[in-house]
Write a structure and sequence with these properties.
With about 260 residues, this protein is α/β, with parallel strands linked by helices. It has a single domain, classed as NAD(P)-binding Rossmann-like Domain (Rossmann fold, 3-Layer(aba) Sandwich), CATH 3.40.50. It is built from eight helices and seven strands, in the order βαβαβαβαβαβαααβ. A seven-stranded parallel sheet has the order 3-2-1-4-5-6-7, with helices on both faces. α4 links the parallel β4 and β5.
């Protein structure tokens, strides 16, 4: 039997890249999955078709989690659609590239709202429904190696991921009596659409991979495999941790 048979899961920001890979992997493991994006576009339709092709079940919910209201509404709709939620994968995220002295309040708020506020209040809504039904749950946050290592010109992004690490640690302690586990996955350099420009620049790509002991970028599927583990009962004694999926990057990194 697949590890997540009979479970329900919501994956935020799951129309492409790591989020899409996570949704597909959870469905492969037997979970009924709620997909999410700001709009139901061709990418969403393709993912729904891919999940159906493997015999999985999924639904799509439009929502912008860049506000507390949006995140709470998304979780509420997922509960209504699936009947309950056993797993929450807080994957949606964003970054803005700017030197620190040029960062605007608008850019700062945009990054913090999606990467931290949406996660905070979406997780709160998830916890409330778990408490109301007396059910355990598992939360997996998509963090970044930049919760640990510097990333010049992305100060707000790094701050949001550092805060997410502390939030995860704190909630691991507070939610344990409820049977709710929460962990972070911290990808390094992953071959996703957001890194298309990097992958097309052979010289810059060589500099990046030179920092990675495994000498290559990772794949979304490799990140999704760790997410599926943390969402499953195989990780029943794991909470408050960050799992780096980075080919060894974090502890061999030097800024180029």
């Amino acid at each position: 039997m697949a590890r997540l048979t009979g479970k329900t899961a919501l994956v935020t920001g799951s129309t492409q890249g790591i989020g899409a890979a996570c949704a597909l992997r959870l469905a492969t493991e037997g979970a009924h999955v709620a997909l999410n994006g700001r709009h139901r576009d061709e990418r969403a339709e393709n993912l729904l078709a891919d999940i159906a092709a493997i015999g999985g079940t999924a639904t799509f919910i439009e929502a912008d989690i860049g506000s507390a209201q949006g995140a709470i509404a998304l979780v509420g709709q997922a509960v209504l659609t699936l009947g309950r939620l056993d797993i929450l994968v807080n994957n949606a995220g964003m970054e803005r590239n700017a030197s620190f002295w040029d960062v605007t309040e608008e850019d700062y708020d945009a990054v913090m709202n999606v990467n931290l506020k949406g996660v905070f209040f979406g997780t709160q809504a998830f916890v409330r429904q778990c408490r109301a039904t007396g059910r355990p749950g598992a939360v997996v946050n998509m963090s970044s190696v930049h919760e640990e290592i510097a990333f010049p010109h992305f100060a707000a992004y790094c701050a949001s991921k550092g805060a997410l690490r502390m939030l995860t640690r704190n909630l691991a302690t507070e939610l344990a009596p409820l049977g709710i586990r929460i962990n972070n996955v911290a990808p390094g350099a992953i071959a996703t659409p957001i890194n298309a420009k990097l992958m097309a620049d052979k010289a810059q790509l060589a500099k990046v991979t030179a920092n990675i002991p495994l000498q290559r970028m990772g794949t979304p599927e490799e990140v999704a495999a760790v997410v599926a583990f943390l969402a499953s009962d195989d990780a029943a004694y794991v909470t408050g941790s960050t799992y780096s999926v980075d080919g060894g990057l974090t502890y061999s990194y030097t800024e180029q």
